[in-house]
């Protein structure tokens, strides 16, 4: 998120004038926008939305000529300067309207800058957020793989706050309720796709869903979970504090903290020990759980659920390579790597 700021603007002639300096949206964002309802329309109108937010929040763009804006799969982020009061520099995040983005400002408000990027302002109808500017040139991906559990665990401990009730908490999806639904939908998808992987792996996922669903879970364990806490979503707070990581881009849910481990396992697979990648993956899972004070077995179980869900979704959309990656992680974390999958080094990387 963000980038090193250029020289501050010397006064804004008009938001529209500054927009002429903006680059086009990155092709990857334009492509992913086409998969989201209304996304293509958003790509044609985002300049106007940016102009409105600059005026409404009294901001100047802080882009050097030719400097690219940061973009993820569903959002673009531009550095800005606040002209009066507050933090002098920030970033403006504009998301393609989609359901997963709806509770983001609620989670950031509850965290209030503890473990996560600080929310400075939001416009819900526009899916627009004004955020603290971080060091976008570095992330936890720059840290050697075996050294990542400690900083990741430290941030997760800060983020996993217990629900206090009230309207601000009602907006978050509940993991236990979702798990109850998955006990029906996952086997149905698996059957519809022609049983594309062994039954034992599906049953391993279903066992977790059944035990952690509404009837089986202990609700007192529920916390607010950043469900997309991977290497690229942990940034240093500033260039001179490269070990002080802060979370961005939350996909918040209420439930087991162990649900957060999976994205740290399906990324960076090519960095696993080539002599024993499955053993290294299992050790990494245990290290992440230990660093965050989690139940390692439950972290492994939720990883299986998430990767089985991912594999079925990938297969339904014809993405066999991505499905192979998910099946490799799901089976390998259980110590039973499926036969017939490509070697880990040949799997699509994230």
The count of helical stretches stands at 12
| Helix-and-strand structural type | alpha+beta
Q: Please provide the ordered H/E string of secondary-structure elements.
A: HHHEEEEHEEHHHHEEEEHHHH
What would CATH call the class of the largest domain? Alpha Beta
CATH fourth-tier homologous superfamily of the largest domain: Aminoglycoside phosphotransferase (APH), C-terminal lobe
* Total DSSP E strands: 10
Kindly provide the radius of gyration, computed on alpha-carbon positions and rounded to a whole number of angstroms. 21 Å
What labels describe this entry?
single chain; 350 residues; alpha+beta; Phosphorylase Kinase, domain 1; Aminoglycoside 3'-phosphotransferase, Chain: A, domain 2; 2 domains; two-stranded antiparallel ribbon; 12 helices; globular
What's the topology here?
Layout (H helix, E strand, L loop, with lengths): L14 H5 L7 H7 L5 H18 L2 E3 L8 E2 L3 E8 L6 E7 L8 H8 L7 E5 L4 E5 L16 H11 L7 H4 L4 H18 L6 H14 L10 E4 L7 E3 L8 E3 L4 E4 L7 H4 L10 H16 L3 H21 L3 H13 L18
Antiparallel strand pairs: 1-3, 2-3, 3-4, 4-6, 5-6, 7-10, 8-9
Helix pairs in contact: 5-10, 7-8, 8-11, 10-11, 11-12
